[in-house]
Amino acid sequence: MAGGTRLENANPLIFQRSGERLHTANDEDEDVLDPIDDREIFDILHVQSINDPEHPLSLEELNVVEQMRVRVNDQQNTVGVEFTPTIPHCSMATLIGLSIKVKLLRSLPERFKIDVRITPGTHASEDAVNKQLADKERVAAALENSQLLEVVNQCLTSNARTV
Amino acid sequence: MTVFLIISFCFTARTFHACSLPFELKLFMMAADSAILVGLVEEFVSGQQDSKAADTATGSCQTLHLTSSQPQTRARGVQLLSSVLQTCHGDLTEGEVVVLLAFYENRLKDHYVITPHVLQGLKALTKCSVLPPGSAVSILKSLFQDVHVQVRTYDLQSHASTPLKGLGADFVFGFVQSVDGERDPRNLLLAFQIARKIIRGGYDLGKFTEELFEVTSCYFPIDFSPPPNDPHGITQEELILALRAVLTGTPCFAEFLLPLIIEKLDSDIQSAKLDSLQTLSACASVYEHKELAEFLPGLWASLRREVFQTASEKVESAGLAALTALTACLSRSVLSSDSEDSLNVFLDLVLKDCKHHLCEPDLKLVWPSAKLLQACSSASYRASHKVTAAVMPSLIEQYNSRTQVSSKSLAQADGAAASQEHSQQALHQRCVTALAAVSSHPSVVQETTPVLIQVLTSAHTALRSVSLFLDGDVSFLPENAFPSQIQLLKQASDSWKQSQMVCLLMGCVCSLPRGVEIPQVDRLLLELEELSCTCDHPLSYTSAAKCYAGLVNKWHVALESLIDRMLKRISSELASASSSVRTQAFTLLLWVRPPLVTCPLSSIPVSQLFSLLSDPELGSLAADGFSLLMSDSTDILNRGCHADVRIMYRQRFFTENSSKLVQGFNTAPQERKSCYLKALSHILTNLPRQVQITELPALLPLLLEALSCPDQGVQQSTLSCLQPVLLDPPSALITQLEALVGRMLSLITSPSMVRIICAYHWLYQPIHIPFWPFTNPPFPWQIMPFRARVLRALATPLDDRKRMVRSEAVLARNEWFLLGSPGGR
């Protein structure tokens, strides 16, 4: 973990995890098309929970990512995620945003255009961060940086479902 | 007015013999004696062959009598007419009947002296076969309107039931109206009797059910003291019983009667309480549990109060009797699978209130509680079973701590149990209680219980159940409604419901320990064989086969000839491709479980099974059958049921037969290969781990080929077979990686395959087939070369139609991204 000697947010507010998605009969019916919906994207982001770099808690528990702030449009191939850093001066914001973006890139079909941004009004330098995250070349370059990739992978390497 | 109309009608419509009339008329006027009158009438009628003339004559009589100012004369005239009608009603035409009806209905409005004769006439008229349909209605309407002293009316109605039923609710309404406000006990008695006939006679009460109930129940409870020197001799008892018969006559009244009973139980008058309790007992024998269900708490509260705070012994015993009747009614109920058991609910209520009193013998409530419990448990087996099970332990425990009082309560419970005959359990229970009463050491009870259990599961049960199934002997199940001739082991055309009872026999007989003798086992086996080979209903023939197998497994030594015969029969059935019962024969063969039976016959069925693998009709069944052969049966052939299970039979089977299997596979035609593969994978899956690991490398090429087999069942079973191997992969697998990965990828991309397997996965397996080799890839560095290919391949299912597939793909693909990546795995 790329941690400093001092934690920025030593005592964060913790939210409860929502339960697993319930299966319906339609889920098993082959003839029924299941559209990609908000909950599904949210599950991608939290089932293999993305960890917060500082705390041994997931982003959902810190309410960094909420289902309400996930918007997907299957027909128009767009996904929009707004995440809320725990404190307004969180320096990890870019990292968190990048982790979310990478997760989605790896998990969604190529047709989707992914937009990850900070929830308006919750961070001091949200414009700068948003600009970075929206820039495709910057993201690709970041991922070629092995150190950065390592950190991102560590966030994404988590308590996967046991086999 | 009508009178004159009739007269004119009579006069104008017909001619009459003028000469004979005057003489007759004079006679009539002089005849005040009714006997002579009747004789004259008969003569009159027999002398006339022509019915028209008879009618005319009587019509002319009327002219003289009806206009008389004396009601007695009029009465006699009507009496004459009625008598005539009684004899010649069969000869009348419809038109005449209509006329006479109109006349009579009008006569009802006349002086009351005439009424009885009018009624007689009406009675005669209603016997006419040509009675027009609406006339019954009109008769009754006028009866209800005009007749106030209704005594004999109802006799008439009881004779003319069929046309009255057609009136249905109108009739009931009329009846209700006429009974309303009646005070004369004779009338009431008759009214009750008629009401009872109405209820029993299947009249449609319609929306007047409540009214009918109201009008009769307002007299409840009856408080009648007959006047001295009453000529009719009607007693209160008669009235009470008659009213009770009405009130308890139909379940439709339940919703009104039960609240009424509860209300009357609250009254202070003893006779009212007694009456209510007795009525409750009576109605419980008629009603079903669904009528009683909502009132149970209220009834129980009242009954409990009556017994706990009893002022009189009569009331107490009536209360207990009512409780017994209630419990018996609830015990009789037939439950559907999702309804709650009202007997249990009720008994829980009772036990909740009474049980704790039994533990406080110093309070005087223990006696009423004990009596209540006794009343409940004497109602039926089910009730007694539940009550004694709940109560006995605490009683016995108490007995061991405090002798005196508990012994009395035990004795009472004993008395309750003793009130049932035939029941072995009750008998034993009595012995137990007797034992407990004489000894004071808890270990005695502990010792007797195992003995009891042994006895109960033994020959007795076996004997009973076998006789039930072979001979239809239902004597040991007395509280149920069986048809008198039940043939449980025969298959009649539509009675699969009966034949599937054989699974109960299976449960009974196959779990018995080996020392127990089964009576008539030869005959039983023959019947079972017959049923399993000929029946159409899958559950029935399978259960019969299982039962047969269970019996054969334990007692095969003595039954070799029978088994021999059975095997020959099966072989012939299976050999003839056109036989209609091949499936059934095959099922029987399968269940006889050759690997388990340690007799020399066992080799024949096995080779037959193998040969069946290439059979077009039974091939896949045979392949699935291998799974049955190798796995544990939960219901009959396991150690818990005292079956004879050879040790290591699976390994032995495998080693003896695997080469045969491989050979068969190699020589089989393409379309039959899948059956062999299926059989192989079934066998492998059920082998213990160690054996799998040693055997698998040799079979790996075969299994991999199975993966590319189009049959999905084969693919599934092969995958489940391979799963333990891949979790702990032997080094032999490394050489096969390329093939494995390639096969897996092709599986993923096949359209229906993926979805079905994912569905299968969710339902049955905790691992992600087919992505599991990807979510936890073995040999990380050895499969790195495949990474790029896999990542590309896994991109497609990310966009699959089904969410389950997508989520699996997401998991797998993310894993592969992390594979070999810095910070990843």
From TrEMBL, chain A:
<dbReference type="GO" id="GO:0097361">
    <property type="term" value="C:cytosolic [4Fe-4S] assembly targeting complex"/>
</dbReference>
<protein>
    <recommendedName>
        <fullName>Cytosolic iron-sulfur assembly component 2B</fullName>
    </recommendedName>
</protein>
<keyword id="KW-0159">Chromosome partition</keyword>
<dbReference type="InterPro" id="IPR039796">
    <property type="entry name" value="MIP18"/>
</dbReference>
<dbReference type="Pfam" id="PF01883">
    <property type="entry name" value="FeS_assembly_P"/>
</dbReference>
<dbReference type="GO" id="GO:0051604">
    <property type="term" value="P:protein maturation"/>
</dbReference>
<comment type="function">
    <text>Component of the cytosolic iron-sulfur protein assembly (CIA) complex, a multiprotein complex that mediates the incorporation of iron-sulfur cluster into extramitochondrial Fe/S proteins. As a CIA complex component and in collaboration with CIAO1 and MMS19, binds to and facilitates the assembly of most cytosolic-nuclear Fe/S proteins. As part of the mitotic spindle-associated MMXD complex it plays a role in chromosome segregation, probably by facilitating iron-sulfur cluster assembly into ERCC2/XPD.</text>
</comment>
<feature type="domain" description="MIP18 family-like">
    <location>
        <begin position="48"/>
        <end position="115"/>
    </location>
</feature>
<dbReference type="InterPro" id="IPR034904">
    <property type="entry name" value="FSCA_dom_sf"/>
</dbReference>
<comment type="similarity">
    <text>Belongs to the MIP18 family.</text>
</comment>
<comment type="subunit">
    <text>Component of the CIA complex. Component of the MMXD complex, which includes CIAO1, ERCC2, CIAO2B, MMS19 and SLC25A5. Interacts with CIAO1, ERCC2 and MMS19; the interactions are direct. Interacts with KIF4A; the interaction facilitates the transfer of Fe-S clusters to KIF4A to ensure proper localization of KIF4A to the mitotic machinery. Interacts with CCDC117; the interaction is direct.</text>
</comment>
<dbReference type="InterPro" id="IPR002744">
    <property type="entry name" value="MIP18-like"/>
</dbReference>
<dbReference type="GO" id="GO:0007059">
    <property type="term" value="P:chromosome segregation"/>
</dbReference>
Automatic annotation (TrEMBL), chain B:
<dbReference type="GO" id="GO:0016226">
    <property type="term" value="P:iron-sulfur cluster assembly"/>
</dbReference>
<dbReference type="InterPro" id="IPR029240">
    <property type="entry name" value="MMS19_N"/>
</dbReference>
<comment type="subunit">
    <text>Component of the CIA complex.</text>
</comment>
<comment type="similarity">
    <text>Belongs to the MET18/MMS19 family.</text>
</comment>
<keyword id="KW-0539">Nucleus</keyword>
<dbReference type="GO" id="GO:0051604">
    <property type="term" value="P:protein maturation"/>
</dbReference>
<keyword id="KW-0234">DNA repair</keyword>
<dbReference type="InterPro" id="IPR024687">
    <property type="entry name" value="MMS19_C"/>
</dbReference>
<dbReference type="InterPro" id="IPR011989">
    <property type="entry name" value="ARM-like"/>
</dbReference>
<feature type="domain" description="MMS19 N-terminal">
    <location>
        <begin position="65"/>
        <end position="309"/>
    </location>
</feature>
<keyword id="KW-0963">Cytoplasm</keyword>
<feature type="signal peptide">
    <location>
        <begin position="1"/>
        <end position="18"/>
    </location>
</feature>
<dbReference type="GO" id="GO:0005634">
    <property type="term" value="C:nucleus"/>
</dbReference>
<keyword id="KW-0732">Signal</keyword>
<dbReference type="GO" id="GO:0097361">
    <property type="term" value="C:cytosolic [4Fe-4S] assembly targeting complex"/>
</dbReference>
<keyword id="KW-0227">DNA damage</keyword>
<comment type="function">
    <text>Key component of the cytosolic iron-sulfur protein assembly (CIA) complex, a multiprotein complex that mediates the incorporation of iron-sulfur cluster into apoproteins specifically involved in DNA metabolism and genomic integrity. In the CIA complex, MMS19 acts as an adapter between early-acting CIA components and a subset of cellular target iron-sulfur proteins.</text>
</comment>
<dbReference type="Pfam" id="PF12460">
    <property type="entry name" value="MMS19_C"/>
</dbReference>
<keyword id="KW-0206">Cytoskeleton</keyword>
<feature type="domain" description="MMS19 C-terminal">
    <location>
        <begin position="464"/>
        <end position="756"/>
    </location>
</feature>
<dbReference type="GO" id="GO:0071817">
    <property type="term" value="C:MMXD complex"/>
</dbReference>
<keyword id="KW-0677">Repeat</keyword>
